[in-house]
Amino acid sequence: MPVKMAVWRIESGRARALSPSELHDEAELETMLEADISLLGLPTDLLVITRQALTEYAGRIDLLCIDAEGDLWLIEIKKTRTPRDVVAQALDYAYWIAELERDRVIDLYTSYQLGLIKQAERAAHLPCSRMRSPTRSTPTCPTP
């Protein structure tokens, strides 16, 4: 049975319900959490180590994080109702994580960071014809 929740904004001492919006897919939420993992509201600060890490079980972990104590956190995102096989998937991933050695965790983080750097470099080299101003319909080029 789905649970319906409302989110409220308090302005000038009055509560106002915010309009619901739909997530189009799991990747959209995953991207939001990757950018700001604190959205989960967990009682500890986490650092995202990697996204979509391939495990030995041929599955991909959505987000793998680490806390200040060195404990690893598995974040698996599902947009719709979670069936039993998803619980089994999470248990497989948890087993894989429990067996990770320190050097492998470092390798995962290093690869993830290098991927982010490459993405930023590609974005910085977009040709001007692909960049558009929000107020103009013609392409614009940044000036150095």
What does it look like?
- The chain has 144 residues and is an alpha+beta fold.
- The chain has a domain at 23-121.
- It contains 3 helices and 5 strands.
- Strand 1 and strand 2 (14-17) form a beta hairpin.
- The chain is globular.
- Residues 129-139 have low confidence and may be disordered.
TL;DR of this structure?
The protein is of the alpha+beta class. It is built from three helices and five strands, in the order ββαβββαα.
List strands and helices in order, with pairings.
Layout: E1 8-11, E2 14-17, H1 26-35, E3 46-54, E4 60-67, E5 72-75, H2 84-98, H3 102-124
| N/C terminus separation | 55 Å
Helix content: 25-40%
Rg of Cα set = 20 Å
| Structural class by sheet pairing and helices | alpha+beta
Q: What ranges have pLDDT less than 50 throughout 5 or more consecutive residues?
A: 129-139
- Beta-strand portion reads 15-25%
List the main descriptive attributes of the protein structure presented here.
144 residues, two-stranded antiparallel ribbon, alpha+beta, three-stranded antiparallel β-sheet
